[in-house]
UniProtKB/TrEMBL annotation:
Residues 186-433 form the NR LBD domain. CDD domains: NR_DBD_HNF4A (cd06960). This is Nuclear receptor domain-containing protein. Pfam families: Hormone_recep, zf-C4. Gene3D superfamilies: Erythroid Transcription Factor GATA-1, subunit A, Retinoid X Receptor. It comes from Steinernema hermaphroditum. Belongs to the nuclear hormone receptor family. SMART domains: HOLI, ZnF_C4. It comes from the Eukaryota.
Length: 433
């Protein structure tokens, strides 16, 4: 059982930090040495000192919490003597306040989470944050002070996007390899097993890349061939669901909530993100319908075995239309995936979990808006942002359609092959048997 206790600006994290196995805390990717250190309970994301709480949406010690609050509330401005290159650790965190404050933002500390006595105080703090100033540095040079929300927050956004791309590329490396989910018996693993274990694919660089893709495979001509006699057909739906789980596990807001509620969130988001991943890959290879890396198209698999209906066309062909229309970049795509995964509107989760997801989701939507405006200007970026948020809603709608298709397929499977069982992952997530 996971317990969360609020005390002022602090959220205790003692119970849930063993789940933070991926090295991804508050949107920051850390190096290997830091990953080992922060995987233990209570290490400050800023200086590495012991920490037991989330302060302002990041894992930090009380010292860095107080420093961050004091710096922003009092409108302090610092200048680095080493051009922003200082390494911040527990031993030297007092040496450079400028770099310490920068690392607070990069670690994900959120100025909006600071509790203030009045709206006037909050407004004053934001005015201080947005004001450019000049200051004479230690060498006597006149230097413009750029507020943290211009440079430091931009750096934090870049690091968050880099982290998402890192984990997405790791999942893609599995997807584009000869890894076979059936041979690894992933069909016998339930959702709780996947959530409680670290990234199960190990060193992805050692996975073999097939040399014969796309292949010219003969499609099965009967349902029995399709369901039982076609071991050469890779279980792409199963693999893509597992990879969608692995991607969700890397998200800071997702990691810190109870396992039971993680499962509830995945019930609503997993199918959407799995379908989104398949559609984006298909878009990248200029296909007008869903296609898997080995060249197999679901519509080709189904046309010999089922009466083709509109829902099949919707889920495997029409789903491509919004991607072809909006042409999302890979950066935009991974941020949208994170927003989908952090679904705070699903039923059966606590108010506290909903608030955690809301905060994490807002972090990614803010980054998406910043990215859009950086690439397209303020007005064009706002339009682009609206289109991408619309794309997310469209993918949710297609996810719901695929869920109905999945139900129809299971009913057909039971009628044709009652001895054939769905995967443990599907059973544990969707209560099918």
């Amino acid at each position: 059982m996971i317990h969360h206790h609020h005390t002022g600006d602090c959220l205790f994290a003692i119970d849930y930090f063993p789940a933070c196995r991926s090295g991804f805390i508050a949107g920051v990717m850390v190096d290997a040495e830091e990953r080992v250190r922060t995987s233990a309970i209570g290490r400050c994301a800023v200086c590495g000192a012991p920490a037991k709480c989330l302060h302002y949406d990041a894992v930090t010690c009380s010292g860095c919490k107080n420093f961050f609050r004091r710096s922003l509330v009092e409108g302090r401005r610092y200048v680095c003597a080493r051009e922003g290159l200082c390494v911040i650790s527990e031993d030297n965190r007092l040496f450079c306040k400028a770099c310490r404050l920068a690392k607070c933002f990069i670690a994900g500390m959120n100025a909006n989470a600071i509790q203030l006595d009045s709206d006037d105080s909050r407004k004053k703090m934001h005015v201080q944050l947005s004001r450019s100033r000049t200051m004479v540095d230690y060498r006597g040079r006149c230097q413009q002070i750029v507020p943290p929300n211009v440079i430091v927050v931009e750096d934090a956004c870049n690091k968050l996007i880099e982290s998402l791309l890192f984990f997405e590329n790791r999942c893609n490396r599995v997807r584009l390899s000869t890894f076979d989910p059936a041979k690894e018996e992933l069909q016998h693993k339930d959702i709780e097993y996947l959530l409680r274990t670290p990234f199960r694919f190990g060193d992805v660089s050692k996975l073999e890349i097939p040399m014969n893709w796309p292949s010219n495979q003969v499609m099965p001509r009967s349902f029995e061939d399709f369901a039982l006699k076609s071991p050469f057909i890779k279980q792409w739906f199963l693999l893509d669901m597992v990879l969608a789980v692995e991607f969700s596990k890397t998200l800071g807001g997702f990691q810190i909530i109870p396992i039971e509620e993680q499962k509830e969130i995945l019930k609503t988001a997993l199918i959407t993100n799995r379908l989104f991943a398949e559609a984006f890959f298909s878009f990248q290879v200029n296909s007008d319908s869903i296609v898997f890396p080995d060249g197999v198209k679901p519509l080709d698999l189904l046309k010999y075995n089922f009466r083709m209906t509109d829902i099949y066309i919707e889920c495997f062909k029409n789903v491509m239309e919004p991607l072809i229309r909006y042409k999302p970049s890979k950066q935009e795509y991974v941020i949208c995936k994170a927003i989908i995964a952090l679904n705070a509107e699903c039923p059966n989760i606590s108010r506290e979990t909903s608030e955690i997801l809301d905060a994490a989701r807002k972090q990614y939507t803010d980054v998406l808006l910043r990215l859009c405006q950086r690439e397209n200007g303020d007005v064009g970026g706002a339009v682009r942002f609206g289109n991408l948020m619309g794309l997310i809603q469209t993918m949710h709608a297609y996810g719901e359609k695929f869920n109905r298709l999945r139900t129809l397929f299971l009913l057909y499977l039971r009628s044709k092959l009652p001895q054939r069982k769905p995967s443990k992952l599907a059973e544990s997530l969707f209560n099918v048997a």
